[in-house]
Amino acid sequence: MRNVAIIGCGVIGLTTATAIQDEYKSAVRVTIFADKFSPNTTSDIAAGLWGPYIMQDTESEKLDHDYFLHLWKSGYASEAGISLHLVKKLSRECEDSLDYPNIVYGGHRIPEKQLQELSGRHKKEYKSGCTFVSFICEPKIFLPFLQKRFLANGGMIIGVQIDDFAELSDFDLIVNCTGLGSKAITKDALMTPIRGQVARVHAPWLFHTIQDDENYVVTNHTSIVLGGTEQMGDTDMNPRKSDTDTILKCAYNFVPALKNAPLLFQTVGLRPGRNQVRLEREIRNINGKNMHIIHNYGHGGGGVTLSYGCALEVLELIKEVFPNKSKL
Length: 328
Ligand SMILES: Cc1cc2nc3c(=O)[nH]c(=O)nc-3n(C[C@H](O)[C@H](O)[C@H](O)COP(=O)(O)OP(=O)(O)OC[C@H]3O[C@@H](n4cnc5c(N)ncnc54)[C@H](O)[C@@H]3O)c2cc1C
Ligand SMILES: *[C@@H]1O[C@H](CO)[C@@H](O)[C@H](O)[C@H]1NC(C)=O
Ligand SMILES: *[C@@H]1O[C@H](CO)[C@@H](O)[C@H](O)[C@H]1NC(C)=O
Ligand SMILES: *[C@@H]1O[C@H](CO)[C@@H](O)[C@H](O)[C@H]1NC(C)=O
Ligand SMILES: *[C@@H]1O[C@H](CO)[C@@H](O)[C@H](O)[C@H]1NC(C)=O
Hints:
Elements: E1 2-7, H1 11-24, E2 28-34, H2 66-73, H3 77-80, E3 82-91, E4 105-109, H4 112-122, E5 128-137, H5 139-152, E6 156-159, E7 173-176, H6 184-187, E8 192-201, E9 208-211, E10 216-218, E11 224-227, E12 231-232, H7 241-254, E13 263-273, E14 278-286, E15 289-297, H8 303-321
Parallel strand pairs: 1-2, 1-7, 2-6, 3-9, 7-15
Antiparallel strand pairs: 3-5, 4-5, 8-11, 8-12, 8-13, 9-10, 10-11, 14-15
Helix pairs in contact: 1-5, 1-8
The protein binds flavin-adenine dinucleotide (FAD) and 2-acetamido-2-deoxy-beta-D-glucopyranose (4 copies).
């Protein structure tokens, strides 16, 4: 029996923890240490749209929605908070979002004439656009779902802030899934908070998601998410009136029908920004013991999207430490 410690109980920590349990079953005991839990993590703020979004240089190989598809097909949609939505994605860049057609459904490029029409209506100059069907995974439902599964599989969750890896020196391996982390800014110079303010409105009659380089309107049957800001290095957790005004103005521009939708609440989350996800294994000598640490953080604006692909990569790295399952 090997003992694995995961630091972090956001979407990254929980997906990694359950993936390890699924792979190693009773051969590995997994314990999660975290100081924040759903509904208080950054992950809970995410709209949960599956699609590459502020990933910076993170490779697209880490995109994987098989897990959502598996849950969807197995009838867990409601319990896991997963739904399929129609998405319209527009961009000022000539980017080719349909480069990931194997992972989103029914992708179509928006014809030039319609792009010009939308550019006029949104007062932007779009160079590319597409429509597709993709998953939305509502973190406020998904995280408790994973947490329940994790505990049912024999996992342990401990509410504590970890200041030093030495506190976990009894474990055979540590996976660092701390997101922005409390001390991230000082310890990893590449980590930058990217502030995201969003508004939620009641509009149960809207059934499609729209997204461009700056703004989005993401469907959810109880409250539509209007977003959002992308403020680098800004750590103000209070919603700001100037941002609210911009968000609402852009959303009404996207979907004029939203004008009278009641504003329910507003939230701010700090995305764990990094030039790319840090996903690597390190051996560190802690109190004379060589500890294996796997880092899995810095998912920026795409943590829900990247969670499963990254968990699979963590499994590959763990195989280098625990080479043969049947010998544990
Ligand atoms: C407004 C907004 C909209 C978004 N929309 C989307 C979207 O539509 N799709 C998408 O894919 N992504 C989206 N994101 C991005 C997504 O929310 C993040 O990428 C994701 O939540 C990162 O997950 P995480 O588990 O790494 O971090 P977190 O959710 O922040 O979890 C970190 C965990 O680590 C713990 N921790 C940290 N430091 C310590 C410590 N020292 N000791 C103990 N525990 C510690 C915390 O307590 C917490 O449990 C959005 C983000 C924002 C802000
Ligand atoms: C979330 O935060 C609130 C306010 O600080 C706290 O009362 C609540 O217990 C927290 N929830 C969890 C599950 O940690
Ligand atoms: C919609 O959003 C609200 C507010 O965050 C959340 O409580 C609810 O679970 C979401 N519903 C679905 C089905 O995603
Ligand atoms: C764990 O990750 C955080 C980023 O969230 C980083 O600041 C910290 O240095 C990492 N811990 C170690 C021991 O590398
Ligand atoms: C793992 O161990 C089992 C039993 O000892 C053996 O049959 C199998 O070939 C090993 N696999 C690898 C990849 O080494």
